[in-house]
Every structure is written in C-alpha cells, then in structure tokens.
Amino acid sequence: MYLTIEQMFSDTLKAMSETSIWMKWGAVILGGVLSFITPVQSFVIAAMSLVFVDVITGVWASKNRNERFNSRRLYMTVSKLILYPLTILISNLVVITFFKDIPVVEGLTYMVSLFLCMVEFQSNIENVGDIVNIDIWSNIKKWLTDKVKIDRNLNT
C-alpha cells in the first residue's frame, strides 16, 4: 500500500503530537547541528581520515625505527580528532556569520581545512617514506619545484 504525501504528513504530525517535549527539543537541536555540519562534512571526514591513517602509518614507522610507544603521541592524536573538526566548524561559523557576502573570505573554511589536511598529508608521506626507506616528501618537493621552473620557462 502506498501512502500519499498528505497521509505521510498527517502520520508525522500525529506521531509528533505523541512524543515528549524532550524528544522534540532533541530533534530540533540535532537538526540544527546537522544543518551546520553538513556543508563542511567532507572537510571534517577528510581531516579525520588523514589523522586515522597518520596513526596507522606512524605506529608502523615507529616500529621500523625501533621506537617505543609514547602516550604523548596518542594524546596528540586524540587532540587532533577533537580539535581539527572543531577548527573547521569554527571557521565555517565565522564565515557564515561575518563574511557571507564577501567572496574572497568565503573560502576561509576551505583554506583552513586544506591547511589541516596538508599537515596530516605531509606527516603520512613522511611516515610512508620511513617505512619504505625513501624520502618521498623531498622527491615531491623537487618534482614540484622542477615543474614550476619548466612552466615558468614555457610561459616567458
């Protein structure tokens, strides 16, 4: 049996009238939080994913270097998992509150997220380099520098 939109709306209103005030407030708060997070969820997911991968590659690289497990590093990881998403959300809050109509500043959340992700990306590359005994990051920098020099020569 298929319900019409009117029947679904009626059933929803009936169910809402039967729920407690706390459930209603919880739904409103959850909806507000989700509507704030949704525009930047890909940034948050990317940052947290890079932190998780950094933990894996970091532990692996530490074992290759015969380093002992350090609780301070674990504390830093937990801090990153909390502070990186908060930083992205705060930057988005500043942008939508103060700079909504200024196109240049509208990218602030993007830039903050990019910076945080690049820090973790670099750490991951260094860890993988330690695991495979190749200085990947220096090779990437050299390749990019050479590429920029070639592009500059072509454009002049």
Task: Indicate the topology.
Blueprint: H1 5-18, H2 21-37, H3 41-64, H4 71-98, H5 108-132, H6 136-155
Helix pairs in contact: 3-4, 3-5, 4-5
Rg (C-alpha, Å) = 23 Å
User: How many helices does DSSP assign?
Assistant: 6
Q: How would a crystallographer describe the biggest sheet?
A: none
Which class of secondary structure composition applies to the elements? Answer: mainly alpha
Helix content: over 70%
Taking the alpha carbons of the first and last residues, their distance comes to: 70 Å
Q: State the low-pLDDT regions, or none.
A: none
The fraction of residues assigned to DSSP E strands is under 5%
Number of extended strands: 0
Q: What's the helix-strand series?
A: HHHHHH
Name the shape in a single word: extended
Average pLDDT: 86
Descriptive report:
The structure is a single chain. This protein is mainly alpha-helical and about 160 residues long. The protein has six helices and no strands. The chain has helices at about 5-20, 20-35, 40-65, 70-100, 110-130, 135-155. Helix 3 (about 40-65) runs parallel beside helix 5 (about 110-130) and helix 4 (about 70-100) packs antiparallel against helix 5. The longest helix has 28 residues, at about 70-100. It is extended. The N and C termini lie far apart (about 70 Å). The model has no long low-confidence stretch (mean pLDDT about 85).
In short:
The protein is built from six helices and no strands. The protein is mostly helical. It is extended, with a radius of gyration of 23 Å.
